Amino acid sequence: MNQHSDNQDDKNLRDGIIGLGSLSHQKSYYPELKQKIADLERFRTLLDETADAIFLVCVSSGICIDVNRAATTLTGYTTEVLLRKDIRYLLTSDSRDYFVEITHSNNKTGAPFAIRSEVSILTADNQEIPVEITVREVTLTDESYYVVVARDISDRKKTESELEQYRLHLEEMVAERNEELIVANQELLYEVRSRIKAEENLEEEKERLEITLKSIGDAVITTDILGTITYVNNAAEKMLGYRIFTGETKKLSEILMISRDDKEIEPGNLIHQAIASGRTIIIDDVIGIFRHSIKKIIAIIISPIVQSSRISGAVIVIRDITERIRLTEEIQKHERLESLGVLAGGIAHDFNNILTAILANISLSIELLEEDAPAAERMREAERATFRAKGLTQQLLTFSKGGAPIRECSQIENLIKETAGFAASGSNVQLMYDFSDSPALVDIDKGQISQVIQNLVLNAQQAMPDGGRIIITAHNAVVGMDHIQGLSLGKYVRITVTDEGQGIPHNAIPHIFEPYFSTKETGNGLGLTSSMFILKKHQGTIEVTSEPGMGTTFILWLPACKESDHVASETVDIKPIERAGYALLMDDEESILTVVSTLLKRSGWEVTCAHNGDEAVRAYADAMKEGRPYDVVIMDLVIPGGMGGKEAIRAIKDIDPDVFAIVSSGYSNDPVMADPTQYGFSRVLPKPYKIKDLLAIIHH
Amino acid sequence: MADSSVFELRKFVAPEIVYGEGARLLAGRYCSIFQMKKVLLVTDPGIIDAGITGDIVNVLKETNISYSIFSDIQPNPRAESVMKGAELYEKNHCTGILAVGGGSAIDCAKGIGIVSSNRRHILEFEGVDKVLIPAPPLICIPTTSGSSADVSQFAIISDRERKVKVAIISKALVPDVALIDPVTLLTLSHELTQNTVLDALTHAIEAYVSNAHSSITDIHAQEAIRLIVKYLPYAILEPMNLTYRTYTMLASMHAGLAFSNASLGAVHAMAHSLGGFLDLPHGMCNALLLPAVIRYNYSGAPERYDMIASLFGSSISDISPENRMDVLIQKIVEFYNQIGFSGCLSDIGVNSSQIAQLTQKAMNDACMVTNPRKPEIGDIKAIYESAL
Question: Which of A22, A236, A623, B167 has the fewest CB atoms within 10 Å distance of its CB?
Fold first, then answer.
């Protein structure tokens, strides 16, 4: 055994026994008491801080033994007062009876009774407070107590009554609210109406836009970003032959093909390009191939649609530029013709002078020959050929600029009959006329219009190689709102020339007025072109309708004369020359002077020749001095390097205001030729002319 | 030669003591002071029969103290009795204990108290300082003049299963109040008077020679011895003489205060072993062992024993030191004879075959550590043998 540890144990034991050990202290309740007091205080706090009022009541006496703070708060009594009180006298009389009853019927099992019974507490200041009590009987050190726990339910009661009030209030509010609702409803109705109005406005706006889009002549198409068509306007519907139907979506490339120089351009690619680049793509002058393989020259503009800075698709505008192209081409042709006309005009003067000389010589030769001489017939044939040359020259001249018609107010019926009759003579066609409503006078260059009639009749005649009828009508017409292209409003005479031929092929119709276009092997392709030019220069127009196998109708529109024009045209009063007389002939062409003077002399006339204006004026002045003025003066209009007819007549008029002068020119475009009286001339005689025509004018 | 004990740490614990004729009648007042609305009145049937309990009950009734009586107690109180009493205490919602009786009733009451407050079995408290929670208030009215349990820190409980007396030693066992009334002794029998007073004498002698004695305990021990030596013989002769009873009661009290604080020695250690084993009267055991132990212990505290001898009327200075021990033992034996006490261990049924077992238990007794000599097993055996 370890002596040391044994000693240590003994020492510890001894210390304990004699009271020196760490636990060897005298019995003291204080620490435990302190602990219990702390526990109790904590418990007391717990009780006091409990919202429910707690009463410990002596069963035998009914006196409160203990109460918590809530009990004092509830009753309004101090603890000291409460601890002398019989709990029964803390209750209202009704509640007191109830309390006595329940405590008497208590079976003393220790289980709580009167659980959550409602009673009323009478407070120190005589107020009644509704409480809910739970009572339990307990036994502490042989004494029985009631533990009465009372909960103030006045708040709950108050809440209940408030709830009731609130319920009533709610009902009122519901009623009020209903009224408000009615008002709100009306406001809403108004709002709805406003919105409908706004929507209508929007709808109107949309409609306006729709109408605008519809009215645009260009085809407007919108697509989504994939090229699927989302909208087409009317023009597009017509052009594409496509209408958006519900349930059917198409891509633009399915209904439109584009080609340029025979290379196809995919419209989808163009849309993609526009959307990708965000830029407008303009492609001009390409061929669009539409449904039924209809080709049109189009300009196509593709722009991305930008909505709130996002591209949502593309808008495609297609313009049919066929007409523009055609017009451009026409203008180009016109320009070509005009230059031709300028050329023709340039040479026409000399050419007509030559033709005049040829014609005069032929006429003279025929007169010199025997009637049945073999050469006589050849000479007449030469004379006719000369006239055809004159006609060609005349047609070329119509294209030249400034070739203003020499217009006068004229009856149209006779002009038509004479011209048509002449043109159709010797053919197997039958001419029929209808002038049933006495067509008005028209302001025309008779020569030019005659030329048009002649062209048309010749065409009709050639369209019916086996013969047939040519029906010519002339009626009054008014061009109004349903105006015809190129015509201004007003009164017109509408002339139709209809044949019963094989008609003009459809595809040829657009081209028949083009120069050098001809369906005939022998045609020069200038007849209808010059006719068109002539009508345009008369502020009229020419149209054509034709059905293959059913014949062709040309329609001429000529402006009717105004009353004033009609009167003006009657001004010149010329006394006809009954007999052969004394004539002054001025021309720079020696051959013309020779042959015309010969011919006049053969008809009994005495002729003085002048080579220019100066000579003519001098000759006339001499004749006046001698007291024997010329009966007629025939002057060429243009004298190269000398005084022309225009200046000469002015001088002669100064000498003899009553002079009878005829202006003769191969240059019929000169304004003097259109309006000779304005310049002092009495008559016009275009070159080349037959001596018969000259004499007819002199003797008229 | 200087007394070394005054330079060492010492402690003195005593209950509130009311001494004198009629002290017992203050029981009601003290119960009220301690808020003991319901007391467990622990007593024994003998005391009840003697009418002592009845006086106390009347006092309680007068002061409106309710009570429950527990009297299922035998001499050398058993653990079972303690547990029963604790059960009753609990059941009746008692708030304090009033013990009226001799050492058995008071020790049992101490046991009930600590069991109730600590809620543990009584045998778990065996040893020193095992009581952690103080017991409920305990008021003691001693009815013998020997055990002094009413002022001591000891409780001796008999464990019948192990056949041992369990010593529970704790300052917490010191009662709150001791109402020491000599009147209770008037009905004490001759035999019990002998045993209990001899017990008190042993307490005083052992406390005086204890190695833990102090100046305070010395005074109490000497006074106890003086009073016993002087008055016990008269009390034996005139048991109804309240004056003599008063002195013996005082002697017991002094002895109690002395040994409760200075503890005891080999006599008690060996007497506990003997009492537990044979269920013999404690006082008698002590008295039979005392001379043999003095013979062994004398050399451990010769001056102290010499002082005791002088208290027995010896003129020590006239006696040579080597004879002084014998003189003391002779004086004690003479005193035994004077009061009519005699005998040896053999007389009460102890034989040599039991000595080894008794020795073993005695060696382990807590009282042994304050013995003036530290004995070996052989020493104790020899003492027992010499006491046969």
Answer: A22
Three-state secondary-structure class, residue B191? helix
Mean pLDDT score, A349-378: 82
A26 in contact with B, Cβ within 8 Å:
yes
Question: Residue B9: which of A17, A20, A142 has the nearest Cβ?
Answer: A20
Write down all domains in chain B, each with its CATH number in brackets. Answer: 16-185 (3.40.50.1970), 188-387 (1.20.1090.10)
Return the residue matching tokens 């297609």. A318
Q: Are A341 and A396 in contact (CB under 8 A)?
A: yes
State CA A488 to chain mean position distance: 26
Q: Are strands A128-140 and A113-122 parallel, antiparallel or unpaired?
A: antiparallel
Number of Cβ within a 10 Å radius of residue A382 = 16
Q: Identify which of A16, A27, A142 has the shortest CB distance to residue B169.
A: A16
Is A595 in contact with A361 (CB distance < 8 Å)? yes
Joined together, the tokens standing for residue A5 give 């540890």
pTM of the model: 0.49
Q: Is A266 helix (H, G, I), strand (E, B) or coil?
A: coil
pLDDT tens-digit readout, B307-353: 999 999 988 888 898 899 999 999 999 999 999 898 888 888 888 89
Q: How far is CA B210 from the centre of its chain?
A: 15
C-alpha torsion sign, points A390, A392, A398, A402: negative
Rounded distance between C-alpha atoms, residue A509 and residue A661, angstroms: 46
Q: What is the pLDDT of residues A542-572, one digit of tens each?
A: 888 888 888 899 999 998 887 654 443 333 4
Residue A427 banded pLDDT, cuts 50, 70, 90: confident
Contacts with B37 from chain A: Cβ below 8 Å: 141
Amino acid at site A489? L
User: What does the alpha-carbon distance between residue B220 and residue B223 come to, in Å, rounded to a whole number?
Assistant: 5
The amino acid present at A458, given as its one-letter code, is L
Buried b (16+ CB within 10 A) or exposed e, A479-502: beeeeeeeeeeeebbbbbbbbbbb
State the smallest CA–CA distance between residue A146 and chain B in angstroms.
Answer: 19
ipTM: 0.83
Instruction: Evaluate if residue A72 carries a pLDDT over 60.
Output: yes
Put the strands of the sheet holding B16-19 in their side by side order: B16-19, B177-180, B138-142, B96-101, B38-43, B66-70
For every residue of A161-209, DSSP letters joined together read HHHHHHHHHHHHHHHHHHHHHHHHHHHHHHHHHHHHHHHHHHHHHHHHH
Which residues from B are below 8 Å from A when comparing CB atoms? 9-13, 37-38, 66, 93, 95, 128-129, 132-135, 137, 153, 169-174, 176, 211-212, 261-263, 366, 369-370, 374
CA distance A101 to chain B (A): 31
B134–A28 CB contact, under 8 Å? yes
Residue recorded with tokens 């008071």: B106
Interface check for A18 against chain B (CB to CB < 8 A): the answer is: yes
Terminal Cα distance for chain A, rounded: 189
**B177 DSSP 8-state letter:** E
Q: To the nearest whole angstrom, how far is the Cα of A3 from the nearest Cα of chain B?
A: 12
Substitution target from A27, A30, A140 for chain B, most B beta carbons within 10 A: A27
